Amino acid sequence: MTSKKNFKKKMKRYHKNHEDHKEMSPRAKKAAAGAASALLGVGIMTGANTHVVKAAGYREDEIVEVESANVLSSEKTKVRISVQQRTNSTEDQNGEVISDESTETSNDVVTDTSTETASTNPESVATNDTTVDTTSTEGTSQLETQSTETTTEQVSATGDTSNEKTPKEETKTPTYDDAKNEVENINNTNNGKLDEAIENAKGEGVEVDVANGEDITTNVSGIKDAEGKLEEHIQKQLDKINKALEQYRTELEKYNKESAEYEIKLAEYNQKKADYIEELKKYGLWDENNVDIDKVSQDLILDPNESSKVTVVYKGDNVTVGTGNKTIGTNPDTQVVLDQFYKINKETLGEFLRLEYTGFQNSKYGNVDIGKILVSFSGWKPNYERDKYDPSGIYFNNKLTDGFWYVHSDGVTVDITLYDKKDNPIDLKDGTAYITAGSLNSEGTGSKYIEKAEIINDKEHNEYGGSGLALPESTVKVHEGAGIYGGDVLYSEKNNEVLVIYGDVNDNTIRKQTQAAINVWGDTETNRAIINKYINWDNSNDNKKAIFGAGLFKVHGKKIKIRFSTGIGSAWATYSTSIPKMTLDAVHPGKAPERPTLKIEVEKKQIVLNKNSSVHIHYVDVYNDIQNGVTSGFDHVSLGHGTELGEHVQHIEYLAIGDKYQNTLWDWASAGYVLAEMYVPEALRGTIKDDPQHHYVYLTHNTETEHRHMDVNQVIHYNYEDGTTAHEDYNGKTLHFVQTGTKDLVTGEITWDGEWTPVQSFEMVKSPEIENYVPDRLEVGPYNIIVTDDDYGKNIVKEDWVVYKAQIKETSRDKVVTQVIHYVYEDGSTAKPDHVSVNLVFTQTGVKNMVTGEEIWDGEWTKTQTFVTVVSPVIEGYTADRLEVGPYDITVTNDNYGNNLDKEDTVVYRPNTTTPDPDPDPTPDPDPTPTPDPEPEPTPDPLPEEDEYPHQPEFDEEDETVTPHVSTEPGKENKGTGTAKVAPVKATTVSDEAQTPETVSTTEGISDESTEVAEKSQNEETLPETGDKKAEAAGVLGALAATMGITGLGASRRRKASAKVNRKDKKNGK
Prior knowledge:
The protein is an alpha+beta fold. Among the domains are: 290-497 and 548-573, Major cell-surface adhesin PAc (Sandwich); 704-806, Immunoglobulin-like (Sandwich), CATH 2.60.40.4300; 810-916 and 927-1067, Immunoglobulin-like (Sandwich). The strands form 17 sheets. Strands 11, 12, 17, 18, 19, 22, 24, 26, 27 and 29 form a ten-stranded antiparallel beta sheet that branches. Strands 40, 41, 42, 43, 46 and 49 form a six-stranded mixed beta sheet that branches. α5 (507-521) runs antiparallel to α6 (525-534) and α11 (1008-1022) crosses α12. The protein starts with 6 loop residues before the first helix and ends with a helix. The chain crosses the membrane at residues 1033-1051. Residues 1016-1056 form the Gram-positive cocci surface proteins LPxTG domain. Residues 231-279 form a coiled coil. Keywords: Cell wall, Coiled coil, Membrane, Peptidoglycan-anchor, Secreted, Signal, Transmembrane, Transmembrane helix.
């Protein structure tokens, strides 16, 4: 059984193994495609098992001989390779060395006369002696001559290594232990040949007596010569052994002849038994503790290549025929297509579907051919954990061994009943039939993804039943079933899914998945061994790996009942009966003939490396000594001055006494140093002596000129009084200042002792004009800027604020007061046109906020003005109830500004009661002599107003036109038919010349005609816009009133003009 996520890989192996039933493994039905290449890769890894030794970074590190234990074999060999590698090498992300040049194999220590990289660049000396060149980088000595050690295990039994990848070689700083290891490897290689010959001789029954000969001593440079001497001695010993073996084999020939028949029979028996055991191990049937191989047999065979046919013989009420198919695998030649689908609509505990498979040709139980097989499905419990959008149900096809795929259920219980050709049920005997449950993937206890297979038993265990068998090497164990009749359950409590590789199988994916498994299982030696052996167990044709996730049911009875389940609600389940050979029929041949004996004496020798010694090149910083006056005479063989740069010491420690060395000095210039004094030649080359040698190179600090920069900015903010922005900021040009200093190239410390750029300036900036606002500063700056050391590092900004306040202007307002006198008869009809006096205009000054429009009226009003006395006109035959009207003194204040101060009077005329004179032509009274008008005082020209006089709707609304009534009484005089409309006159529009009033006589003899003419003239001058000719007469009376009040009006205008002059003076600061 497998989940949907790995079924594609398993199907390729499934079809490959179906080609030969006898060789089919329990993992074949769900084996992964591409497994052959994966197995070949694993074979190369476990066969060659090459390990590249990582280069040590410091002199304390040593090359460690690496022995790789083959999981399947205890054999191991060691190979020592010395290479000349003059390349630049780096480590890749996997720790492997990547080299940009090819390497040469050599058995010699190589002389390198490369040029030193120190600042003085002294000439390198080449000699005929064998020398070694070291290069130190950041505290470690490095050889351009490098050695790489590779240990390998025995190549796989096939011997075919043509597909092996050449292992990447990794450079390493050599040590004396490297030389010791090289000598040891030479000893092991040569003596290994001798040991192999000895073991081969022993293997043939020969007794070998080994003695130790005299050692061969050498230094590092003489290892090659010593190796030749050892090889010569070993060859002599091998010849001795071979000669003795020739005699032994003659005696052995007789033995072989006598025992040939025995060996053939024994080999035949052992091979059959070994093959059988190996086959059983693949399925977990071989257990040294409780499984007897001679008692296990498999008589049940379900041939996967059958051309069978399926028929649905029963379906429940909850089952309907569906459409669609499940395709397993992507290769058209190997994929499985489950092309029949039945939908299950809801939970059904009982049987809901029964299939009948017929047409079997090669399937059988023992000697009984199978005619048909009934498969019944039950126990459907919906589970929508996976494949949520797929329909619920079961997919299958005509081939029984292709199994079925269930979707959206915790699991499915399957009843399998076998029938012979005569339609009789087949009863499986105990111990003769087995069902393999392979590829039981699991993500471990606590996960929903655990594939399980449970054997179901009947109540009495008579009709059907079985038990689970745990296989060695498998993570699948036997667990107790949950129900009353539930049998054993096979599943893995351990996460074996983490060892499965999906997709391409290569070194990278194997390494990645191996690490993932270690992360889950824990990094222990045991876990690593298991993981390395079984990695990709579910994607390989290696049966030993497939057993890692397999279990077995031993079944009996008239049917087989198994429940397949998983917590994710969807899986593919198959039936497999592949078991090793059915029976083992062989007889042991008995006692073997005795083997002949032989004793051989041999002598072993080995190479012994001279004692190790060393050379150390030290680098000393004498900067402080030089600053204190010590400039020469430094000791080059012991430390007498300065501070040693311990991290850059070069250690030549891998050589033996008598070896030549050559050194490449550390590149001190790259660290900011220069030579303080010339070094000794031994720092470059020399001979290794008995005691360690020390040489000192003295250095001082190099310097260079540095510059640092400081920028100073200017910003001016323009805000209103409430803090909001009045105008965008002004940003002045940036002033750049520079200072020079001296940098110590070793410490990086900079001494800033130079002068800063001289003083620079920000120019004067005028504040922008904003309508109706006044700035508190008309200009900002200029500023002189000086930068000092104390300022460096600070964010210096010359920042100013200009605040704008609202502009305050003077203003004024007028109050116009009017006077009108109505002349009417007793019945209310008009007797004479109304008298309208010249308007009195009162003015007050104040101040106005030009932003808010707010006005404050705190100035003095125009002084009191007067409407003069108006004499009532004479109407013949009538007497006025008031001979004159007025005078009225008018005063305006803030308190009565809003009140109606206009004067309105009515004079009523009544008929005279005396009898008229019968004289038809009375002599008229002479006109009175008019009083001459007084000379008006000269009025100064009014000052121009800054603003138009404000609109006063309360006065405008009071202006109205009065239409007089037409008299209907006979004899009444009706010379005036209307009242003129007189608009208020504002102070800013009154003309002194046009409005100069004249004095009117109070004599009663004023004629009606003269009054009307005056009124008409006045009305035409003041109201040209009305166009009402009927109201012209009213203007005459107004003109008379204006003439009589001219004195008061002239004074008012003079006061108003004077007030304006005073306000103007205040505004201008006078």
